[in-house]
Amino acid sequence: MYQFIAFAFIIIPAVYLGRTLYKRGVKIKSIYDAFFNGLKIEFKAIRNFTLANLMDQLFHLRRILYFLTVILASILILTGFIPVILLGKHIFGIFLLIHVLVAPFFCITTALLILLFANQHTFLMKDYEISSLELYQKISFWVFAFFSIPAILSVALSLFPIFGTDGLGNLLLLHQISVLFLTLSLILHSYFLIISITENNTVKIL
């Protein structure tokens, strides 16, 4: 059952939004190139650190944090859902190993991301204009932030010997549901961000 729910929540929206971007002339390769070129630019920008340009350096570090969180989230999504969607099984083997190794770093970057970007994602009156891309980005950001809490806590709590078999099953269910909404919000946020960049040639939200 979860296999079909995950397919409906992740694959169908991703394919639909991908086709929408393609019709707008945005190709996957161009997104890939822009993403990693942007990451390289940010790393180059922080090489010459001085107190004089501290604020500029912090700006670039925040953007690097965003890039890293997206990369870590993508790895967790792939390792978590490939066995579920394609094989109809729970995460196992190399998928589980990579998932477990990456998860702690994702927790750290996600917590920092929410703290550092929360102020920029506060809702303003101008956001409520019709078809405001910034509004959609902010909504998807907060949905991501909200569901990241149960997604992380459900796994963390399962590590302690305080829950029985039923409790662990409920924690697993909570984790599965949370990551579905978390993944969907990340897909939507990325989509609205790409549309904002292509239309305005800028990244206001970062």
Write a concise synopsis of the structure shown:
The chain has 206 residues and is mostly helical. The protein has helices at 2-23, 28-45, 54-87, 93-117, 133-158, 165-200.
Description:
By secondary structure, the chain is mainly α. It has a single domain, classed as Fumarate Reductase Cytochrome B subunit, CATH 1.20.950. The chain contains six helices and no strands. α1 (2-23) runs parallel beside α6 (165-200), α3 (54-87) runs antiparallel to α4 and α5 (133-158) packs antiparallel against α6. The model has no long low-confidence stretch (mean pLDDT 86).
Tally of individual domains: 1
What is the total tally of β strands? 0
Output the radius of gyration.
18 Å
> What is the helix content?
over 70%
Q: Given the structure, what is the number of helices? A: 6
Tell me the fraction of residues in β-strands, as a range. under 5%
Secondary-structure element order, N to C: HHHHHH
